[in-house]
Amino acid sequence: MNVRPRPGGKRPGPRSGGRPPRPRPKVDQARLAAYDVLRAVAAEDAYANLVLPERLRARGLEGRDAAFATELAAGTLRRQGTYDAVLSACARRPVTRIDPPVLDALRLGAHQLLSMRVPSHAAVGTTVDLVRQEVGHGPAGFVNAVLRRVAEQTLDAWVRAVAPDPGGDPRGFQVVWQSHPRWVVDALAESLGERADELDALLAADNEAPRVTLVARPGLVDREELLAVEGAEPTRWSPLGVTLGSGDPGAIEAVRRGRAAVQDEGSQLVALAALAVPLEGGHDRRWLDTCAGPGGKAALWGAEAARRGAHLLAGERAPHRAALVERAVAAVPAGVVEVVVADATDPPWGRDEFDRVVVDAPCSGLGALRRRPESRWRRTPGDVEALVPLQRALLDRAIDATRPGGLTAYVTCSPVLAETAGVVEQVLAGRNDVELLDADEVAADVLRAVPDHAGPLAGTVQLWPHRHGTDAMFLALLRRRQVVGRPSTG
C-alpha cells in the first residue's frame, strides 16, 4: 500500500526516524526534590535542613508528598554510611569510584529498598528513571544492576554481611550499623563516660527523625495558642515548648509573625536556665549574646528582656547571619534588641559592661546530628582541634564583658569533652575572677524536673537525644567575681 506523505512532510521510513521515540519517563516531584537536596549537600556544601524547604516549595510539594521527600532526603543522609558499605559490596567497587550524581541516586534507591516500605520494583524503577532524566542513559544499566543486588537482602542481613564482627570489633560494627564515622563513635563514647553502655541508644537516637519543636516567645504569644494547632503537644520540660505532629510550621500565624519559632527544647532549656540565675549586686538591665546567629536564643532573650525592662545587644561576626538575627528578633518590641556585626574575640564592647552574657560558641554540632544529618560526614577530628582555641577565646572575652556579680553562660550544641569540660576547665585555670556555679542550685526552677542532666563537670548540664529527646546541649554557668587589682587571665 502506498503511503502518501503530508504536504511539506517526508515519507516515514527508517531514514526519517522509523518508530516515534518512547516517551521519556516522568519522575515524581518528591523523589526529584530529595535528589535535589542530596546534590546540593554533596556539590554545594549546603545544609539539608535549610535547602529542603526551598526544594519542597520549588517542586510544589505539600502534605504526604512533602513528608515522603523529607524522609527520602534526611533518611538517606542519616544512613549514608550504612548504604555506602552495602553499595560498595553490590557495585563491587568502592563508592569513591562511582560518579557522585549516580552515587546520590543509588543512595536514594538503597534507602527506599532497605528502610522504607517502597516495593522493590518501584524503588529500582523510579531510581533508574531518575538517573536517565537527571544524569543520562549511560549509567542507567549500572544503577539497575546494583539496586537489584541490594534488593536481594534485608538491611539486617546486609549489615551482617558487610560490617566487622561485633564480637571482635564492636565499634567497627556500630560504624556501619548506626552509620556514624569511627571518630564520632569514639568521641561520643568518651563523652558518655561511665555510661558508655548507652552508646547504642545514643547513636540510634541520632538516626531518628525529630519532631518539630516550637518555642512560644515570652510576652509575644501564649503557649496555649500554639497548642490549639492540630496534633500539637506540650514539650516535657520547657514551659515555652510545643511539638508538632506534622505539617509546615511556617503555616502557623504566630510563626509567620515571629511571635513563635522552631527551636529545639534543649536550646530553650539552656537559654531559660541562664535567665533564671539570680545576679549579685548592681542591676539586671544590660544583656549580651556574643554569637547570636541565626537568632533563636537572641529572640528568646530579647522577648524576655522586653518583659523585664532590659536591653539585649546581639553580636554576630558574619553579616548574613546578623541579617538572620535581625529577622528573628523582628517581633520583639522596638529598641529592646540591637544587632551588630562584631567579632566577639575582639569585641567593640567594653569590659565589665553587661549583667548577663551568653556565648553559644561555634562547635562541631555533633549534638544535633538528628537535625543536621550531613554534619557527621563533613566534620573531622581536625575541626574540633581548630574550634577549641576559638571557643576558649570567646568564653574569655565573654567573661571580660560581664560585670562583677554578673553571669556568663557558656553553651555548645556538642557533647564532645574537648568542646565542653575542656574549654571551661582551661578558662577557669587561667582566671582568678570567675567561679563555676551549680546549675541545679541557681536554675532549679528550670532544671528540677529534667532527669539525668548532670554534665561532665560538677554543676554543669548535659542534655542528650536518647535520654531527653533534645539536642545534646551543654551548659556551664559562671559568675564573675570582684578581685583586687587586675584579674589574671590565660
Automatic annotation (TrEMBL):
GO molecular function annotation: methyltransferase activity
Enzyme Commission no: 2.1.1.176
Positions of the SAM-dependent MTase RsmB/NOP-type domain: 188-481
InterPro entries registered for this protein in UniProt: MeTrfase_RsmB-F_NOP2_cat, MeTrfase_RsmB-F_NOP2_dom, NusB-like_sf, NusB_RsmB_TIM44, RCMT, SAM-dependent_MTases_sf
Highest rank taxon of the organism: Bacteria
Region (Disordered) location: 1-26
Catalytic residues (positions): 413
Protein residues bound to S-adenosyl-L-methionine: 291-297, 316, 343, 360
A Gene Ontology BP annotation from the UniProt entry: methylation
Protein keywords: Methyltransferase, RNA-binding, S-adenosyl-L-methionine, Transferase
PANTHER family the UniProt entry points to: NOP2 YEAST -RELATED NOL1/NOP2/FMU SUN DOMAIN-CONTAINING, RIBOSOMAL RNA SMALL SUBUNIT METHYLTRANSFERASE B-RELATED
UniProt similarity note: Belongs to the class I-like SAM-binding methyltransferase superfamily. RsmB/NOP family.
Name this protein carries in UniProt: 16S rRNA (Cytosine967-C5)-methyltransferase
